[in-house]
Design goal:
The chain has 236 residues and is α/β, with parallel strands linked by helices. It is built from 7 helices and 7 strands, in the order E-H-E-H-E-H-E-H-E-H-E-H-H-E.
């Protein structure tokens, strides 16, 4: 799967030890020109610098992806600096936080989890769809195993609701944009072996490796998956 000269935007780059680190590296190694976006500019700059040292191409941006005005400005800037064609969008921005029983829950925590997981995915999709249409590009969203039938959702309802919304967004985009040559799919992983998860859950857990996630992302962004759209891919 080669991405030679293909512009790929990755949100939620994250620090070392997180899934975005490996996704960025795998796409770069296959020739993609990366647009790296994180809420903190210094995080995306650090990732871009590491890739550049290895001879890859990456540009760094900082953006609050839950803010419509900031996302619109980001899309305008990317178009001006990199052209009007986007080969793929990997919407990995998001996060997990404990929520607890609904009866004792904090409405503010509900809103925050929806904002960082669902609103970010919606706004970046909306702003970059014209560039994706121009390149007949692909979108990969990050859902969760919690969205799948039979999954345990007690005390994580806000996170599950947000990720279920991501799945609904993915399906809508797949149906609405197929006529424009844009595909959309979502990954639904169990726990990924990240630094954060190792710190909170320990090592005695069955993890999905970051390299496995990156391989799935690369496949869904590539022309090898040109017949696949509107699907949830479980990784376990």
């Amino acid at each position: 799967m080669s991405f030679s000269d293909t512009l790929v935007l990755l949100t939620g780059v994250g620090q070392e030890g997180q899934v975005g680190e490996v996704v960025a590296r795998v796409l770069a190694e296959r020739g993609a020109k990366l647009i790296l976006v994180d809420r903190r500019l210094e995080v995306s700059q650090a990732r871009a610098a590491t890739l550049a040292t290895a001879g890859h191409r990456a540009a760094a941006y900082g953006c609050d992806l839950s803010n419509p005005d900031e996302v619109a400005a980001l899309a305008t800037r990317v178009r001006a600096e990199h052209g009007d064609k986007l080969g793929a969008l990997v919407s990995a921005a998001g996060g997990f936080a404990p929520f607890g029983p609904i009866a004792d829950s904090d409405p503010g925590a509900w809103q925050r989890l929806l904002a960082i997981n669902l609103t970010t995915a919606y706004l970046v999709t909306r702003s970059f769809l014209p560039a994706l249409r121009a390149a007949h590009g692909a979108i990969v969203y990050f859902a969760s195993e919690a969205t799948l039938p039979g999954a345990r959702v007690a005390e994580i309802s806000a996170y599950t609701a947000a990720k279920s919304g991501v799945v609904a967004l993915m399906r809508a985009v797949a149906q609405e944009e197929q006529k424009n040559g844009v595909r959309a799919n979502a990954l639904a992983p169990t726990a990924i072996r990240t630094a954060a998860n190792l710190g909170s859950m320990g090592s005695d857990v069955r993890y999905v490796e970051r390299e496995e996630v990156a391989a799935a992302v690369a496949f869904l962004c590539s022309t090898d998956s040109s017949a696949i759209t509107g699907q949830i891919i479980r990784l376990s």
